[in-house]
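User: Some background: our group keeps a shared notebook of sequences we're curious about, and every so often someone picks one and asks for a predicted structure to add to the entry. Today it's my turn. The entry only has the sequence so far, pasted here. Could you supply the structure so I can complete it?
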Amino acid sequence: MKLIHLYNNEHNGGTRLSNVIVKPRGIIPSFKRLWKKNAVPYLFLLPWFLGIFILTLGPMVSSFYLSFTQYNILSPAEWVGIDNYKKMFDDDRFLKSLKVTFTYVFTSVPLKLSCALLVALLLNKGIRGLSIYRTIYYIPTLLGGSVAIAVLWRKMFGLEGIVNQFLLNVFNIQGTDWIANPKTALYSIVLLSVWQFGSPMIIFLAGLKQVPLEYYEAAQVDGANKMRQFFTITIPLLTPVILFNLVMGLIGAFQAFTQSFIISGGTGGPIDSTLFYTLYLYMKGFAFFEMGYASAMAWILLLVIAIMTAVIFGTTKYWVNYGDGGK
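Assistant: Of course. Here's the predicted structure to add to the notebook entry:
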């Protein structure tokens, strides 16, 4: 609001100073008016705001502070600077967990995406009962991350499990205890991850539906076979979908925990062959009560995921085609 002073003529010919209140135009409405206008939307968003500040940002800030302390839950945190981060490079199990996790990520993610794309291509043929098949193939994704399926997987790949029974009865091959063998334990978990290809399959199928049929018809006229059409039409037009599935699969694989915890009995065995990074983080924090060290590990994991994601996005200009005439 502005206060403007004016000189007004009175009946006696004199002048006097009067105050005129002028309401300015174009200024930001008052907080009261804004709240009255937007109160209902903000009230609906309030649970999300509480969740993001109390359940996400709050714990993140707390864990960042704890990563520079020695904290065992039972006593006050003691500031130690970057000692927790230095300690990691002398921790053989930490380095082992990194190796196991990277092996798991670089093996399971490509296999899962390949299976998802293959099944999506098969379902994109216009077969009858498509919705039923999509549901059937999506069920493992809903169940695969559960404790019950992890327990079932451990039984299946055990010495007397159904996998060895199948190999013995069909191929007369005596199998091994896949879970107890350090050479095969990790890859049994990889198979469990690949089995859960439902989510990327649905996304791939949606992407395939968006590819214009005219491109395939023109390619057939030019004499291109199915394989050439796949690599020159399908894959280039699916690269944005591949990018999305790749990033989401990568993040999910780095955070894998339940399968390793259940199948290895919470130890990461045999001989730390299934010691995922998240499992070792859990052991440090809740088994050994080294909460400061576990917090530092959590931030290192965040950094690794951020770097890997940034690398992928940094290469998109070379292989992702957004259909706008360029990459």
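Suggested note for the entry: Residues 2-66 form one domain. The longest strand covers residues 2-9.
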